[in-house]
């Protein structure tokens, strides 16, 4: 038995079309921001794909390292007051730790 082919039967599919004007490859590479509420505070959350994760970070949920190439979540308070919060307070979380943040309080 030969392996199944997952190629389109239409040879021109996807070729010759102009790129979508709303498509920003850099934005797709670094992730798209959303807003999530946790407790009484709103957080800006960005899901980072593995290809865009190039550094090692320490997850505040489990205190373990997030290695380069591992998809994860970056979260920070949406509004910073008097120099606190905002993008300067970004934290890199394992995706599972971020989902379980109600059961896993940040360490240290």
The computed structural class is: alpha+beta
Helicity, as a percent range: 10-25%
Q: Which assembly state applies to the chains in this document?
A: single chain
| Radius of gyration from the alpha-carbon trace, in angstroms | 19 Å
Taking the sheet with the most strands, its summary is: 4 strands, antiparallel
- Backbone shape: extended
Series of secondary-structure elements, N-terminal to C-terminal: HEEEEEEH
% residues in beta strands = 25-35%
Strand order of the largest sheet: 1-2-5-6
CA-CA gap between termini: 57 Å
Poorly predicted regions are none
Protein name: ATP/GTP-binding protein
How would you portray this structure in words?
Residues 9-31 have a biased composition (Basic and acidic residues). The strands form 2 sheets. Strands 1-2-5-6 form a 4-stranded antiparallel sheet. It has a two-stranded antiparallel sheet with strand order 3-4. By secondary structure, it is α+β, with helices and mostly antiparallel strands. The protein has helices at 25-30, 95-99; strands at 33-38, 41-48, 57-58, 65-66, 72-77, 91-93. The chain has a domain at 28-99. It contains 2 helices and 6 strands. It is extended.
Kindly list the characteristics that best describe this protein.
two-stranded antiparallel ribbon; 2 helices; alpha+beta; about 110 residues; extended
Topology:
Layout: H1 25-30, E1 33-38, E2 41-48, E3 57-58, E4 65-66, E5 72-77, E6 91-93, H2 95-99
Antiparallel strand pairs: 1-2, 2-5, 3-4, 5-6
């Amino acid at each position: 038995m030969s392996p199944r082919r997952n190629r389109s039967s239409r040879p021109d599919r996807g070729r010759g079309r102009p790129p979508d004007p709303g498509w920003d490859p850099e934005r797709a590479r670094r992730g798209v921001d959303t807003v999530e509420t946790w407790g009484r505070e709103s957080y800006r959350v960005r899901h980072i794909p593995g290809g865009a994760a190039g550094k090692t970070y320490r997850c505040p949920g489990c205190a373990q390292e997030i290695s380069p190439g591992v998809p994860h979540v970056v979260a920070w308070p949406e509004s910073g007051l008097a120099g606190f919060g905002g993008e300067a307070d970004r934290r890199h979380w394992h995706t599972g730790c971020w989902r379980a943040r109600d059961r896993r309080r940040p360490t240290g």
